[in-house]
Amino acid sequence: MPKGSPELTNARKEEIINACKALYKDMSFKDITIMKIADATSFSRASIYNYFETKEEIFLAILQKEYELWVAKLKDITDSNESMTKDEIAKALADTLAQRKLLLKLLSMNLYDMEENSREERLCEFKVAYGSSLRAVDALLQKFCHDMDEKARCEFLYSFFPFIYGIYPYTVVTDKQKNAMKTAGVGYVYYSIEELTYSCAKKLLDSGTSF
Q1: Which of 56, 74, 94, 138 gives 198 a disulfide partner, CB atoms 3.0 to 4.6 angstroms apart?
Q2: How confident is the model at residue 208 (pLDDT cuts 50, 70, 90)?
Q3: CATH code at position 69
């Protein structure tokens, strides 16, 4: 890590992260390189390696920030409400995840590569953010779902969080995929992120158990 103030270091990391995020809007994960990311910043490729060893570490930092934003929203919902029905909780979870489309995309499309090709210290930083999201949802359930004991909340978390990994490919379908399914005789009904998430969360909350 080059010498400099923490503020300068963080500013440069942010510039790199934001450049990568901007590229990901129009390019695939595999086509984005450190060189392309550097071209979108104010400094060289060599400088990027002072902060991130691989492009996967940059993407992992993006995903970490997405989790942190989700956690902040979940905490705000928990703190700003005196009571919530299970229907309202399901809608809130659906709404917060609909706002985190990038999180859902990275989870379903690129998580393995990001974790496999990042240093353990970077992976630990990310896991802290992931753990915070588990605790934030659990806090929401503890405050408003008094009929759910610790076991029921745990069953909800470890059913709902794996479900999150599959939301993106079921809600973002290309014309080519639709045509292929039609040709193959596979039925397809479109659901939005909100609709799919609400349906799953509501069923889990109503049952108080996993599937």
Answers
A1: 94
A2: low
A3: 1.10.357.10
- Amino acid in position 29: F
Question: 117 with 94: CB under 8 angstroms?
Answer: no
Q: Which residues lie closer than 8 Å to 117 by C-beta, 6 or more apart?
A: 54, 56, 57
For position 44, what pLDDT does the model report?
87
Q: CA-CA distance, 33 to 31, in Å (whole number)?
A: 6
Q: Which CATH number is 24's domain given?
A: 1.10.10.60
15 and 81 assigned to the same domain: no
Kindly state the average pLDDT of the residues 45-54.
94
Contact 9, 51 (CB under 8 A): yes
Kindly tell me the burial class for residue 6, based on how many C-beta atoms sit within 10 Å of its own C-beta (0-12, 13-18, 19 or more): exposed
Least confident of 4-13, 183-192, 202-211: 202-211
| 186 shares a domain with 174 | yes
Q: Mean pLDDT across the stretch 89-111?
A: 97
What is the structure's pLDDT at 210?
40
Whether residues 5 and 62 fall in one domain:
no
